[in-house]
Design the sequence.
């Protein structure tokens, strides 16, 4: 329905068939330098560690997790707003992790980003016309073509032509996010990385923006990496989902499998912690309440990083970090757990 | 006796941009051992309501009636309100880091609040602080009481705020988005804690949130606010299974849900929440209302609709109630 081969999408893992993936991420890592110590720097903070996944044309991969899990850092590395310290990202078969800025430019038009705070990401001194035209000018388009294109784009995202001469502060949060989306789509990207694009918006406006992004995907065939902490929004918009914990992917697969039958205890606990808008269901619901807070990435626990909060933890979990692998839960979904749910 | 009874509460104030009527005559009651959920989007007036009830509205014109165990608080001497605030009714805010003082230890802050109302020695107050920190599930409370807010994680800080609120054994707690800044697994812990404390002590709670999931989890009764007015009021079960106001229905339809059937499109509400500076005439929701769009009525642009009984214990402020589209 989205121009995506459902068979391909159903392959939840990272072992995608070469050539079908739009974006291939392998062993991606980001270690931020540690604080300065008395004699030398303290150990760095591993914000992202060994992350691998594929994104196929026209699909949405949801990236979920709690604060500090590395989902935003991962997103920023995908568009090279951050340079990874390990691993590689291939976009349309080309390694973009070690490419110079000049070489990167033609690829940038196909790889765009939408941010959480639309006001912080729009220049307050520019009109909507100037904001949306910027990426087109950077690509060297002719002024007449730019004007025409910008008009089409504001219509596409549900704004009116009279909005073009206004400034960002004259818009509501939802409208401002539409401007951010129009700018991201100006160069007809094949992949848009959206980092918490609806979390700053009111509930009634969230649905508008999610609906808009879904419609644009159907019409333009654009793929999304949709980064969010809201599990319900991610479930709604994604085809496949990756769950992150302390810098690593703990489970990845088709959304129906991950949500319907989670294999990793963390995924299970996370889903059970979301309150449902249904009082009758809430009263009888079985809830796994995790103890404590997510640990700091500056000082992660050994072995499986989830073991201090995991009810199933055994000796091996304290010493051996589990690998992300296909589980018996089926469907090609992968989980990083020594004792996955069957 | 009813713990808290609010009638015809209105809050108005001047801003640099103009005059704002943030709350336009709302009413509700809170009984001991029960939780009233107030749900609304930004600008709905839900937080202003809670501040007005607590007497924390600086420079605003507040009218109507707020009775705590029969004692009228609006217009009462500041001394009367001060004695109740903190002691009998306490507040929990969204952002613990800005609500706690960064210079003082957690223990000192709780002890200070306790002594303000109960007097006694500093030592006794500190012992009380350690006790309530233990009550809210903070491990090693005696040691943690000597730490500063920045040494606490987000979830622990929120627990410390709850401990601060509980230190004087209040009868009413107003919690304004207490879990919004927390991760979902930590939110589950904090909600669990609040519900347990309520059970143990028979507290009345007002839970203010934009999250309908949180409302469904904790609330017995729900007040839905829109543009400064009450749109609908009902027992929680009724509100979620048989919502009457078009705004409530729209809100529930626009919610992505974990328990949804696959492929259900979200039905969003068109437009944006109203501006408080320049609110629409009549019903604040009419410019976005699907019922009004289908059957426009001069009723909706005339008088501001008030809550009306639509079923036992269920009130809705829609003049077109019963009209289906």
Sequence:
């Amino acid at each position: 329905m989205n121009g995506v081969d459902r068979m391909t999408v159903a392959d939840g893992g990272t072992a995608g068939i070469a050539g079908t993936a739009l974006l291939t991420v392998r062993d991606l890592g980001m270690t931020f330098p540690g604080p300065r110590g008395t004699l030398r720097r303290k150990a760095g903070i591993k914000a992202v560690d060994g992350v691998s996944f594929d994104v196929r044309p026209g699909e949405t991969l949801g990236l979920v997790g709690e604060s500090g899990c590395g989902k935003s850092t991962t997103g920023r590395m995908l568009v090279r707003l951050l340079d990874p310290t390990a691993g590689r990202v291939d976009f349309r078969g080309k390694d973009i992790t070690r490419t110079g800025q000049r070489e990167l430019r033609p690829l940038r038009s196909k790889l765009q980003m939408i941010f959480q705070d639309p006001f912080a990401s729009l220049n307050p001194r520019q009109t909507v016309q100037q904001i949306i035209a910027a990426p087109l000018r950077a690509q060297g388009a002719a002024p007449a073509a730019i004007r025409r294109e910008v008009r089409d784009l504001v219509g596409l995202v549900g704004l009116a032509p009279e909005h073009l001469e206004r400034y960002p502060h004259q818009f509501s949060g939802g409208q401002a996010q539409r401007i951010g989306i129009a700018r991201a789509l100006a160069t007809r990207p094949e992949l848009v990385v959206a980092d918490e694009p609806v979390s700053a918006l009111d509930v009634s406006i969230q649905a508008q923006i999610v609906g808009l992004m879904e419609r644009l995907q159907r019409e333009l065939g654009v793929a999304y990496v949709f980064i969010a902490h809201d599990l319900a929004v991610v479930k709604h918009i994604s085809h496949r989902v990756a769950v992150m914990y302390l810098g690593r992917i703990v489970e990845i697969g088709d959304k129906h499998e991950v949500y319907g039958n989670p294999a990793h205890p963390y995924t299970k606990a996370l889903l059970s912690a979301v309150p449902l808008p249904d009082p009758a269901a809430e009263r009888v619901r079985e809830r796994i309440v995790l103890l404590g807070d997510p640990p700091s990435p500056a000082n992660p626990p050994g072995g499986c990083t989830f073991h201090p909060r995991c009810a199933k933890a055994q000796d091996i979990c304290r010493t051996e970090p589990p690998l992300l692998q296909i589980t018996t839960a089926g469907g090609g979904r992968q989980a990083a757990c020594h004792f996955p749910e069957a | 006796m009813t713990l808290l009874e609010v009638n015809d509460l209105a809050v108005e104030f001047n801003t640099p941009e103009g005059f704002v009527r943030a709350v336009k005559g709302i009413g509700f009651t809170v009984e001991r051992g029960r939780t009233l959920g107030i749900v609304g989007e930004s600008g709905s007036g839900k937080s202003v309501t809670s501040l007005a009830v607590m007497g924390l509205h600086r420079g605003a014109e507040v009218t109507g009636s707020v009775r705590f165990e029969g004692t009228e608080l609006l217009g009462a001497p500041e001394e009367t309100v001060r004695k109740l605030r903190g002691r009998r009714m306490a507040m929990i805010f969204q952002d613990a880091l800005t609500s706690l003082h960064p210079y003082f230890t957690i223990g000192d802050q709780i002890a200070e609040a306790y002594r303000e109302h109960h007097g006694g020695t500093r030592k006794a107050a500190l012992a009380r602080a350690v006790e309530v920190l233990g009550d809210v599930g903070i491990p090693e409370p005696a040691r943690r009481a000597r730490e500063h807010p920045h040494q606490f994680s987000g979830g622990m800080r929120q627990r410390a705020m709850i401990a601060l609120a509980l230190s004087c054994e209040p009868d009413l707690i107003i919690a304004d988005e207490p879990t919004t800044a927390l991760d979902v697994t930590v939110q589950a812990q904090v909600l669990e804690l609040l519900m347990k404390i309520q059970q143990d002590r028979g507290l009345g709670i007002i839970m203010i949130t934009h999250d309908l999931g949180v409302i469904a989890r904790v609330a017995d009764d729900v007040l839905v606010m829109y543009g400064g007015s009450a749109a609908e009021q009902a027992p929680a079960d009724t509100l979620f299974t048989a919502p009457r106001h078009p705004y409530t229905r729209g809100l529930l339809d626009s919610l992505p849900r974990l328990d949804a059937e696959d492929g259900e499109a979200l039905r969003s509400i068109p437009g944006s929440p109203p501006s408080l500076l320049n609110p629409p005439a009549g019903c604040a929701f009419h410019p976005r209302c699907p019922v009004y769009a289908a059957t426009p009525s001069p009723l909706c642009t005339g008088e501001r609709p008030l809550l009306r009984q639509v079923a036992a214990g269920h009130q809705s402020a829609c003049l077109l109630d019963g009209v289906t589209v």
User: Anything to note?
Assistant: Chain B touches chain A through 48 residues (CB under 8 Å). Chain B has 13 helices and twelve strands. Chain B has a mean pLDDT of 93. The domain at 4-225 of chain B is CATH 3.40.50.300 (Rossmann fold).
